[in-house]
Design a protein that fits this description.
This protein is mainly α. It contains 15 helices and two strands.
Length: about 280
């Protein structure tokens, strides 16, 4: 098996495990969504810049900030602006499960924009995943969390688009755009909230969140350079079962029946696709 491919799979899988804690950080504090974005943004930017300085690649990455890198920055910033409020307006399980629809979104974008045909297994798994998301969203319509679910889908669309950028232009720097996507939201967050009112203990929690976010973003984007775009999303969806489990254990947040059923459908599709050998050489039209 291609070593670069294997390394990419590992990077994305580790990133998914880290991402599964996002809901715990967000719902575990009383701070409003924009205050969370503010403190997490400062921390994520700081940690990522320190990482780049230690690696000695900050100057090189800045010189490589061309069109694709700036577009990736804007897409990730837009996704983050939706990501945090989604957790406040919907359940951790719903957001995680909607994020699992990324294979369907990414495969469609890759086919349309890159002429990269996904394998039949990816298509089938993506369609089944979409059906599972429909079940989850149907429960939200009854429970009143549909606005949070819509924000979660927007975040999914933005991240799927960033996967396409890194697949098309693999030389695009990963860490610096991730840092800048956090930094550009800080002034807006300060405008729409009063971060100084966040208590000290919650500030430290959000600083830890920033460190987690920085690590997960860099790992996922580095992985996206090495494997097909649709597979990045499929592997990333492996956080789906862990996020609700953490919410249940730490926040005592038990998902409704529709979420459990939809989640089982989604997780089954992801596992089937990966265990059955989803990787095939992408076909070009």
């Amino acid at each position: 098996m291609d070593r670069q491919y294997t390394f990419g799979v590992v990077l994305v899988a580790v990133s998914a495990l880290i991402w599964s804690s996002a809901g715990i950080f967000t719902r575990g504090v009383d701070a409003d969504a924009w205050s969370v974005i503010f403190w997490r943004g400062i921390a994520a930017t700081g940690f990522t810049l320190v990482y780049l300085l230690l690696r000695g690649t900050l100057r090189r990455d800045w010189q490589q900030m061309r069109g694709p890198a700036w577009l990736a920055t804007a897409l990730m910033a837009s996704g983050t602006a939706a990501f945090i409020p989604a957790f406040k307006l919907s359940s951790v399980a719903n957001v995680a499960l909607i994020w699992a629809s990324a294979p369907f979104v990414t495969a469609g974008l890759a086919w349309l924009l890159l002429c990269e045909r996904p394998s039949k297994r990816v298509v089938i798994a993506s369609l089944v995943t979409a059906a599972g998301v429909g079940i989850v969203a149907g429960g939200s319509v009854q429970g009143g969390g549909v606005s949070g679910d819509l924000l979660a889908f927007w975040m999914t669309l933005m991240m799927a688009s960033s996967f396409i950028i890194y697949r098309r232009w693999p030389e695009t720097p990963a860490a610096l755009p991730a840092a800048l996507s956090s930094a550009v939201l800080v002034p807006t967050a300060a405008l729409f909230s009063d971060p100084s009112h966040v208590i000290i203990i919650e500030r430290w929690i959000l600083v830890a969140f920033g460190a987690v976010f920085a690590a997960a973003s860099v790992l996922m984007l580095e992985g996206a350079r090495r494997i097909p775009a649709a597979e990045v999303a499929l592997i990333g969806a492996l956080e789906t079962p862990l996020a609700p489990a953490l919410a249940l254990m730490i926040l005592s947040e038990f998902p409704p029946t529709t979420t459990l059923f939809g989640g089982a459908v989604i997780l089954g599709a992801v596992i089937w696709a990966q265990v059955s050998g989803v990787r095939q050489t992408p076909k070009r039209r």
